[in-house]
Each structure stands twice: as C-alpha cells, then as structure tokens.
Amino acid sequence: SSAAQVVHSAGRRFIVSPVPESRLREQ
Amino acid sequence: AEDTGVRVELAEEDDGKKSSIALRLWVEDQKKLKGKYKDSGAIEFTFDLDTEVPETVAQEMVDSGFFLEIDVKIVGKSIRDRVSLIKWRRQRSTSAHN
Fold first, then answer.
1. What is the 3-state secondary structure (H, E, C) of chain B?
2. Tens digits of per-residue pLDDT, B21-41?
3. Cα dihedral value A18, B68, B50, B9, nearest 10
4. Which of B3, B42, B46 is opposite residue A19, by nearest beta carbon?
C-alpha cells in the first residue's frame, strides 16, 4: 500500500514514500 | 535552523563515521514555497558530507520534477542547515572524545 517510487537523477537515486502521519507536524 | 517549510532529517542512525549518509526530505508547510508544490511524499536520498554540495542535490530534485526552479534555494538551504547540524554534532562528539 505504501510502495516506494524510485526516481533516478544524474546518478542519484531518490526514493519517494508517503510521509508518516506522525511526522507531518511536529512543532 | 530557520523554518523553511521543508523538513530534512536523517533517514538512518548517524554512526559518525560514514561520509555518505541517508537523508529524508519532505514539505511541512507548502505556503513557504513560492511555486505550486505537487505533494509527492518524502524523498529519501544519500548525501556525501565530504564531497557534495546541498544546492546541487536541490537542483537535481528540481530536474527530477519534485520542486520548481523558483524554490531551489529554499530546498538547498533546508538541506544545508541539516548537513551543518550533522557536521557540528560530529565535531562535538569528536571533541568530547579527545
């Protein structure tokens, strides 16, 4: 359900995944 | 660090030795970005503390379509602030040992 998406850019790998609810607002 | 609306955190425990670390970046407050932001979640990437420049990674994120060019500075600054903190912590830890 929370499958990560992988994007490559100039040799770097970006892994995109949903932000956990608990981390959206911590302040 | 200044609240840029873009949050950057360690994606793994910092062992204090590896120069290459995993970071995770996500947008906490879209209103702080100038461009329209497409919510794509948290972006995880590796960053080399010794050889890499935060602004270069920010530009790669723009090139990959995560952010608009107009926000490249704010993304770069967010990464730079976190990287500076990690380096500072490492230095402090080294000083404490000596």
1. CCCCCEEEEECCCCCCCCCEEEEEEEECCHHHCCCCCCCCCEEEEEEECCCCCHHHHHHHHHHCCCCCHHHHHHHHHHHHHHHHHHHHHHHHHHHHHC
2. 999 999 999 999 998 877 778
3. -30
4. B42
Are B63 and A10 an interchain contact pair (Cβ–Cβ within 8 Å)? yes
B41 in Cβ contact with A19 (< 8 Å): yes
Q: CA-CA distance, A24 to A27, in Å (whole number)?
A: 9
Name residues whose C-beta falls within 8 Å of residue B67's C-beta, 6 or more positions apart in sequence: B33, B35, B37, B58, B61, B75
Interface contact flag, A9 B26, Cβ < 8 Å: no
Q: Is A13 on the interface with B (CB under 8 A)?
A: yes
The length of chain A, given as a count of residues: 27
Q: Which ipTM was obtained for this model? A: 0.80
Q: How far is CA B30 from CA A6, B5, B7, in A?
A: 23, 7, 11
